[in-house]
Amino acid sequence: MFQADPQLSRVPGRRQPKPELDLKTASKQDHLRMVIVMDHQSPGKLDMQFPDIWLRDNCRCGECFLPQTMSRLPQLWNNLDTSVRVQQHSVDLDQEILYITWSDGHASQYPLAWLRERDFSLANRTRYLSDFYRPEPRHWSGTDFEHIRREFQYRDLLASDEALLEWLDHLAVYGVALIKQAPLEFDVLRRLCNRVGFMRRTTYGDEFSVRAQPGASNYAYLAAPLPLHTDMPYFEYKPGVTLLHTLEQSDSPGGVNLLTDAYHVADLMRERYPEQFRVLCQTSVDWADIGRDGELEFHNIWRAPVINLDAEGRYVRINHSIPQRDSHFTVPLEQVRPWYEAMALFVRLAHEEACSFKTTPGDVLTFNNLRLVHGRTGYDDTDRNVRHIVGAFIDWDIVYSRLRVLRNSKSNS
User: Annotated pathway, please (predicted)?
Assistant: First the structure.
């Protein structure tokens, strides 16, 4: 690391750095060339560090950035010079702007407030990912359910952005929330989805009715017990949030909802049964849905493991549905039995960690379909004892977008 030559910091016609500003370029290795700025607004705070190539890529001038789209322009990348270096730099502390002249002759300026939000420190990156990108999920066991369970009033969600923000945040963190006192009308879910963004359409339409019916095209349309599952694992872009509005509830002892946080189940397997956990993360399974709904005939297939991880080892999706697991299993022979043994363990733990409750007419159960497995007990279905649930989906991209907009609005008010 070296202190830049003071003469290189002088840019004609600009205010020079005040003594308390520490502005350096560092170059332990060529790919780690950085500009380091001490944040004078927070004494004692670690210096802000910015790779020089990142600063050049994120120049805010009119040649490089289009304000109305809030995005960089592609011109730089048509002939990107990755060897570009800082030629001169200075900071105007009164205006709080960092000025840089580059070895390619380009001049850039960066507001310090903008830089503070993008500081590469671990604390700042962690804050951004958990507070703005996506709330950090908190996993729960079946015995924890009554402590994390939260209810929201339907009318509040339609009328109040504050209530809407609280619902979406709770749903993002815990994966489940119950909405109470919704009218017994067919457009309830559409109104809720429109408050967030818009519904996700599938092969079963926008909204769908879950009730016992002869010649059912889906296992959920039977009165028999519905085993724990995620909805539609046969879609590459699986619906993210499931909404279930109870219009009529069976008076029989059955029809009880079952829910398990499958991320918690995955935690248990990762800790106690690492080999079975690895199998469920690495073995692709063929998920399928074949049938007809109205005039639409379909044959959906998607191959993916039961437990899906991102590049950092975090859970991003659980796939599980016994009726919708295809008889095709396109893996090498030696992987078959280990998968069955690992999956039997997953199902056992999911049942052991399940919570149960029964919704009443006017309830809307909302939950993370990428995370929770859900089911219900069987029930009696007669002309005088009907269970009727209306369902719909929203994608998580739409939910997270609305959540950020609401947070920004709240912080700016």
Answer: Amine and polyamine biosynthesis; carnitine biosynthesis
Exposed, middle or buried: residue 192 (CB in 10 Å: 0-12, 13-18, 19+)? buried
3-class DSSP state of 357: strand
How many helical (H) and strand (E) elements, i.e. helices and strands, does the chain have? 11, 22
How far apart (Å, rounded) are the C-alpha atoms in residues 163 and 281? 37
Question: DSSP for 67-111?
Answer: TTTTEE-SGGGGG--TT--EEEEEEETTTTEEEEEETTS-EEEEE
Instruction: Note the pLDDT of residue 43.
Output: 61
Residues of the chain with pLDDT under 50: 1-22, 27-28, 215-216
Helix (H, G, I), strand (E, B) or coil at 31: helix
Report domain 6-126's class: alpha beta
- β-bridge partners, 373: 260
Distance CA(178)–CA(167), nearest Å, equals 9
Domain parsing of the chain, residue ranges: 6-126, 142-412
Supply the pLDDT for residue 45. Answer: 66
